[in-house]
Sequence to fold (226 residues):
Amino acid sequence: QSVLTQPPSASGTPGQRVTISCSGSSSNIGSNHVYWYQQLPGTAPKLLIYRNNQRPSGVPDRFSVSKSGTSASLAISGLRSEDEADYYCAAWDDSLSGYFMFGGGTKLTV
Amino acid sequence: QVQLQESGPGLVKPSETLSLTCIVSGGSISNYYWSWIRQPAGKGLEWLGRIHTSGSTNYNPSLKSRLTMSVDTSKNQFSLKLSSVTAADTALYYCARVAYGDSEMWGQGTLVTVSS
Fold:
């Protein structure tokens, strides 16, 4: 069971804006960077956002994030059919000896 | 361009040890943390642990008692051993360099099935 909680599903129509939430705690999102991944069917996850709000080269600015306290959200604007994928948040957790964790994932349907 | 490639048996018997190796090509393995991540079919991602080329490790607390990671800088590769496997360990296993921003990278993944 993931300590980072995401809704299992989200949906939107082309052109819309959709948000995906990720809820954690003070030992992970509350004190560390949040990462977001996109996983298309049959492929390895692709990093979308790192260090809370940085985008790797090639990731369009349609993808943005917000973070407040122990929660974060990924927003996708100008939704496209190719955005249909699974999305995962992730963060380092400082508890125990420290470990990286993923949220349970959100299936986005366009 | 740096590439990661997982290798190892695709079938492991219950109670035995799963062993995988990740070969890093196109660049040096040194001075990074290297992670293992798995994904059961139709399910989410689970971070297993990471190892630095200095030998320092961090493991997922839920798997720590069964996990061992090692690194061989002379061969530019790192490895995973997961002991006492059960059917619940059946998954696609990825090696990756995560949480490094623009220099993050993943292997294509290798399917490991635990079955007698």
